[in-house]
Amino acid sequence: MSQRHWIFCHFFVHDELIDILVHETNLYADQDIERTQVGPESRIHRWKPTTRSEMKLFIGITMLMGVVRKPTLDMYWSKSSLFETPAFGSLLTRNRYCLILKFLHFSDNDAMPAKTDPSYDRLYKIRAVYDLLSSAYMEAYTPGQHVCIDEGMIRWFGRGFRTYLPSKRAKYGMKKVYKLCEDSGYTHKFKLYTGETRAAAENEEYGTLQHLVLNLMTGLLDEGRVLYMDNYYNSPVLAKLLYQQKTHVVGTLRMNRRGVPKELNKLKLKPGDVQFRTCDPITVLVWHDKRNVNMISTLHDASMQVAPGGKLSRQTGQSVCKPAAVLDYNKHMGSVDKSDQMVLVNSSVRKTLKWTKKLFFHMLDLSVTNAYILYCKHVKKIKHLNFVKELIQQLVSNSIEEGDITRRARPGRKSADSSSLLRLEFNMSKHWPVLIPATGKKQNHRRDCVVCKSHQGQCTGKRWIKGESRKRTETRYICAGCDGEPALCVTPCFQQYHTQRDY
Question: Mind giving me the DSSP string for 412-476?
Answer without folding.
Answer: -SPP-GGGGSGGGS--TTT--EEEPPPBTTB-S--EE-HHHHHTSTT--SSS--TTS-----EES
